[in-house]
Known about the structure:
Blueprint: H1 2-7, H2 22-26, H3 33-48, H4 52-57, H5 60-70, H6 73-79, H7 83-91, H8 107-113, E1 125-130, H9 133-138, H10 140-152, E2 155-158, H11 167-171, H12 175-194, E3 198-201, H13 204-217, H14 221-229, E4 230-232, H15 233-243, E5 256-260, H16 263-266, H17 273-279, E6 285-290, H18 307-324, E7 328-331, H19 334-344, E8 348-349, H20 351-358
Parallel strand pairs: 1-2, 1-3, 3-4, 5-6, 5-7, 7-8
Amino acid sequence: DYLSMFLLDEGRSLDTCLHCEACRVECPLAIDIPGLMWMAEADHIARHGRGWRNRVLGNLELLARAGSLAAPISNAVIGIEPSRAVVHRALGFDTSRRLPRFRHETLKRWFARRGGGNGGPGGSRRLAYYVGCFANYYEPETAQALVKVLERNGFEVLVPDQRCCGMPMMANKNMSGARRNAEYNIESLAAAAANGYDIVTGCPSCSLMIKREYPNLYDSDKARLVSDHLYYVDEYLMLLSRRGDLNRDLVEISESIFYHVPCHLKVQDLAGVSLELLHLIPGLSIERVDAACCGMAGYHGYKKAHSDLSMEIGGKLFGEIGLAQADRVVTGCGACKLQIEAGSGARAIHPIVLLQEAYGLGPYLS
C-alpha cells in the first residue's frame, strides 16, 4: 500500500526506510519488498533528481578515502569546533552525533605492507577477503583480526581489487554508482572464485548486497558465481567447525557478553552463526541476546531529520545493554557498533575480535 501511494504521487517519502530488509522476512506472501523499494527510489530520482547532499553521501567511499589520506588532520576537522559544526550542518547531520574517526593505515595498506598483496602468509587453503568500507577506512584492527584468524586456520588470504559494495550508495539514491560498483566487484570477485577462492566478508550489509542483490542487479553467471562463493565470516568459520576443520586451540576468556544481532544477518537467516562461534570460546558466557533494530541504518541515524527517531528506535536496545551489565558488547555490524556506543556509552566489538584474543593473537587495540 505504501509503495502504491508513493507511485501515485501521494506525497509519500522513502527517506524513512531503514533498508533493514525485515519486510522481506515478515511478508507472508514472500514479495520482494526491498526490491520494490529500490525500484521506487530509482523512479523518484528519475522524476525529481538526487539533490547535492545525496550526491555527496552517495559516494561515501570517496569521502572515506579522502579522509583516510588526510588523517589525522581530517579527524581534527570533524572533531573540533567550529569546523565540526560546519561539516555536520553541510551534510545535514545532527551536530550532537560523533562521526567515526578515519584511519590513515587502512586494512589494504596494512595488508600490502606486510607482504600480503599476493595472498599473504598462510597455509594450503585459500580465501578471498572482501573488506568493505567501514572495516577498511574506520576500523582496520577488526579487519586485521579477521585476516589473522583465517591465517591461524591455515588459509592463504587474498584481498582482491574491490569497491564499495553499493548498499550505502543505493540508500543515498546513487543507483547508477551502485550498479557500476557492483559490476566492478563482480568481475574481480568472479575471477577469484574461478581460481578456487571462496570469498568472506566481516560486514553483514556487504554480505547481503553481494550475495542477494548482485544477482538481482545483474542476471549473469559471474554474479551467481560470486553469490554462491560469498560467506559472512562467522558463517564460514562455523562451516569449518561442523566439518572438523576449525582450529579449536582456544584459550579461556572468562567474561560475559551482550550480543546484538544485526538486521542484515537476520534477513540472511544467519542470526545464530555468531552465537555458535562465540560458544566455542572456553569460559565465555553470553549474558543476553538482543535482536531489535538499533535504528542506525548506515548514515540514516546521523541525519538531523531522523536522528531523534533513530535513537528512539534504539532505546530498547540501549536500556537492555545497561541492565545486562555484561563485560563486553558484541555485534557484527559497524553501523550497529556506532549506534550502540552513541546510545549506551558501551564499547562494542566484532565477534572476530574475541576469536582473535582466544587464539592468543593479541588484544583489540582500536
